[in-house]
Amino acid sequence: MSKFEPIKKGFDPRKSSTGGGNAFFKLGAGDTADVVILSGANDILSCEQCAIWIDDPDVMSPVWVYTGGDDPSNELGIPRGYRAYIAILHDGEPKIWSLSKTVHNQLLDISDAGALEPGAMVRVKRTGAGLKTRYSVVPRGKSKDVEDVDVPDILEALGPLTSEGVWDMLTERLGMTREDVIARYGKKKKSRTELAEEEDDSLDEIDADDIDI
């Protein structure tokens, strides 16, 4: 039996039906930005992510990488969604861009056309909000020298990559025991049909502080 890999490097979602102190790139509805790619398509990290949404503004909503069969989300009945991450330069600042599967596919299409080498500039436009959020990504045909740019550590920013590490994060973040977390946030597991109908952009509304574990 192969070991589960929480993080995949260079994964191509077009070929599959499944899916720390660094700032995260975020656009508001209707915003457009030019960003510089800091790594090639083969260096994009992808994973499945889970979240417990907290309404209290003083509590950071726990968001974590799915860690396999013993992940807390399995016991809690929480669905997971596809995310990918790439390092970029925006307004002169190195940042991490959190991608839905749709945007990841757009970047891979650009890469297939030979326009996504490190230093390549792309224009990103966001429309809508929540589950209706959509992004369009277009190459600018320009490039920038990024040889001396410090590339953000994406793995560090994504937090714990073991089930025990996730449980420790959840109990600390929520101020509860494991049993209390299950009792408070456990949900009925959704059917395959329900999960298939969910948008892969459902995590686009996560605030940067919610992801920066």
Write the layout of secondary structure elements.
Layout lengths: L7 E2 L13 E2 L7 E6 L7 E7 L11 E3 L6 H5 L4 E10 L2 E7 L1 H12 L7 E8 L6 E10 L10 H4 L5 H12 L3 H8 L6 H6 L10 H4 L2
Parallel strand pairs: 2-7
Antiparallel strand pairs: 1-4, 3-6, 3-8, 4-5, 4-6, 6-7, 8-9
How many β strands by DSSP?
9
Number of H/I helices: 7
Domain tally:
1
Spans of at least 5 consecutive residues whose pLDDT stays below 50 are 17-21, 207-213
Following the backbone from N to C, one meets helices and strands in this order, namely: EEEEEHEEHEEHHHHH
Mean pLDDT over all positions: 85
Terminus-to-terminus distance: 30 Å
Profile the largest sheet.
9 strands, mixed
The percent range for strand residues is: 25-35%
Structural class: alpha+beta
General shape: elongated
The proportion of residues forming helix, as a percent range, comes to 10-25%
Query: C-alpha Rg, in Å?
Result: 17 Å
Tell me what the structure shows:
- The chain is an alpha+beta fold and 213 residues long.
- The chain has one domain (25-145, 173-205).
- The protein contains seven helices and nine strands.
- It has helices spanning 72-76, 101-112, 154-157, 163-174, 178-185, 192-197, 208-211; strands spanning 8-9, 23-24, 32-37, 45-51, 63-65, 81-90, 93-99, 120-127, 134-143.
- Strands 1, 2, 3, 4, 5, 6, 7, 8 and 9 form a nine-stranded mixed beta sheet that branches.
- A hairpin with a 2-residue loop joins strand 6 and strand 7 (93-99).
- The radius of gyration is 17 Å and the shape is elongated.
- Residues 17-21 and 207-213 have low confidence and may be disordered.
